[in-house]
Amino acid sequence: MEGSATHHPKVGVPADDGYTKFTISIHQILAQLKDKPWLRRPLALKGDPDKRSVNKYCAFHRTHGHDTANCRSWKVHLEELVRECHCKEFVAKKVVQHNEDRDAAMDSPKKVSRPDSK
Ligand SMILES: [Zn+2]
Predict the structure, then answer these.
(1) Three-state SS at 53
(2) Is the Cβ–Cβ distance between 86 and 29 less than 8 Å?
(3) Which of 79, 99, 100, 86 is nearest to 35 (CA)?
(4) What is the mean pLDDT of the chain?
(5) Domain residues of the chain, as ranges?
(6) Among residues 3, 13, 25, 41, which one has the fewest Cβ atoms lying within 10 Å of its Cβ?
(7) What is the pTM of this model?
(8) 59 CA distance to ligand 1 centroid (A)?
(9) Ligand 1 centre from 97 Cα, in Å?
(10) Strands, E assignment, the chain
């Protein structure tokens, strides 16, 4: 799928690691989306399965080696799904704190009123 990386309209709030922030864990999202027809399964993990950690399981790759929560492929695919508006319900909404902003603006007037009794 070349060319898809060139246009990404901003959807949602980017998390600290650059990925979209979700209201539930990406592991839970996968549990809810795993049967969707538009969910694309990743390519098989490269490398020797015997050398991957067997106590971690990725529900996206359906094999061991890493946790679903740490699956780069799943994170990347989630970003694509968000862009395609498939999982908007899981995207964390930006918290608008206009009340605080307004108060802060009113609390800091340019002119400081000090008693000038001279
Ligand atoms: Zn994975």
Answers:
(1) strand
(2) no
(3) 86
(4) 80
(5) 10-43+51-94
(6) 3
(7) 0.65
(8) 7
(9) 36
(10) 53-58, 63-65
